[in-house]
Design goal:
Length: about 120
Amino acid sequence: MYLLDTHVLIWALFDSEKLPDEVRKLLNENSRCISIVSLWEMAIKNSLGKLKLPWSIRKIAEYCEDNDIEILHIKADDCEEVRILPFIHRDPFDRIIVAQARTNDMTIITKDSYIPQYDVKTIW
């Protein structure tokens, strides 16, 4: 299963030209999910004026659910994993995405150069 980093979800929905062909192909052919934290991150950045979204957060979540993109909720084990992660990346949203990938044995699709420095599988 693939866990999409927040920017991958945004680009997949609204600006797919930013995604390499191999990533677009993976997104169309495999099981994928997003973290609930990605919706939270988009909501915060949108409210601060740092991210313009053509859809509401609710519509993005509904789209994901309607298109077999599972929304992964945060569990206590994920929080425990965050607690033991080294501080390679200080972004709390990315840290929980890394933790969720580790606790659920998932591969993260991301362009973020910090994430592969963790003991986690990544693509891109």
